[in-house]
Amino acid sequence: MRRAQSALEYLFILAAVLILVMVTIRVVFTSVQALNSSVTEYIDTLKNKILETL
To answer: How many Å is the maximal CA-CA distance in the chain?
Structure first.
């Protein structure tokens, strides 16, 4: 009976770790998307300023 309980505890810990990994990956991807959007906007602004000065 102890082996079954240990296996069940192991599966719960594994599920918790996988949930934490998924949350971390989602946060990283959201941050990368926000950064990409900011960089793209900044590049467009610089491009427009350069074109205005020509």
So the answer is: 80
pLDDT tens by residue, 1-52:
777 789 899 999 999 999 999 999 999 999 999 999 999 999 999 999 999 9
Tokens of 51: 């074109």
The amino acid sitting at 49 is: K
Q: What is the 3-state secondary structure (H, E, C) of 2-51?
A: HHHHHHHHHHHHHHHHHHHHHHHHHHHHHHHHHHHHHHHHHHHHHHHHHH
**Rounded CA separation 23/21 (Å):** 5
